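HUMAN: Ready with one sample?

ASSISTANT:
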Amino acid sequence: MHGYDNSMRGTLDQAGSGGMASAIRGLDAANPGPFKDLLYHLELGMLLRLDGRYEESQKSWKTAAEQVQPAEQSIEDDVVNLLKGASSYVVNDRLRAYPGYDYEKVMLLTHIALNYLAMGDFDQARVAIKQTHELEALIAEARSKEIAEVEEKAKTRGARTSFKELNGYPVETIDNPEVNALKNSYQSALSHYLAGFVYEALGEPGLAAPGYRLANELQPNQPLLEEALRELDRRVGAAGDGLTDVLFVIGSGTAPALQSRQFRLPVPAGKGLAMVVASFPVMAATGLSHPWSQLAFDGGPALAAAPITSIDLMARRRLSDDMPGIMLRTSVRAGSRALLQAGLQQGGGSDRHAAAVGIAALAIAAGSILTEKADERTWRTLPSEISIARARVPSGVHTVTLQTPEGARSARLNLSGRYAVVDLRLLRNQLFVSAFSAHSASETSEQKSQPRETSK
């Protein structure tokens, strides 16, 4: 029943200070026992990726992909459990097997594709990209069914489903113009732009165009995204000129944390309403992070970068969309406890029995406060904000530099071929580079090795 946010702080601090081995040990210590759940494999895969251990990262993420519950099955289980009074409805949401949020499932496949690209395997990246498209279609269908199911069950039980009715809930954290502007919580412009880039690199412009087009729809009014679609045919038809078309993916910060907070909730109890204490998840700020607007390349003029995906906003939209279901489950739990307390208090009988009943009712009230904690689990090692930049540069060794609040962070790249993807991730004080043939700025071009954390 420990808070997930608290358990991850040390891991993130260790990774952000350069102690990746310590970060992984901390993650393992927080997840003892032989069975490792979905969230463990999501976090471990990202830590291994940042450490340049792509094969191990893929193994962890493929295990995670096998544990991801299909969206339609998750909804069906929710409805069945509600009718049966399963543990998440009676005791706590955190007793539910972690299904993975929709945007996390899409980001998992997107990062599996990025791992393949860091290993120089565009063909396998294409497979992961195709799976992303298929997953989004399944999620869209499943979520439309979920809305109808939740509304029907809430109406039957007289339960409240609007978080705006919770007195004191910070509504503005998940209901604001930026959050509401998102089409949904799971489609990202990054995933679709990356699809366009991979299909283009493989000589499939007919498949690349829809990817670029949807990226523009999801993140409109970005010249960099518009140019990718407008100039597609010209780029594909151009003769080789010794230049490498490089896509820079620039991530910063960490996905926002969820924190459990208690509110008073009116629930049906007998012939009236009872005010009970109930816990709900609140999206917390995770410190200053912002999409990068530029990066320096070989000490020349800065390359313009365009913000393409905010996982912070996607997570907030996900919570906003999920709150009706969370409200329903919480109302059912709270109502069951209120009825149990009322039944005990009404059946007191003799003074002796009344005293025992009073103690029992008090124990139920105290126990509900202790066990009623909102689910704080979420994939924290994802970046908060993601930008992209793109340039055609001569093949060979180059240096890219990001200016951070702690000073300049640089990476050396040995680029070759007609297309390449370079993933730069700023986490706390460290810049990590994931790319085929990349190494820290302190190494020579002859020390070509697996990508790993760059020097300060």
Summary: The two ends are 38 Å apart (CA to CA). The longest strand covers residues 257-269.
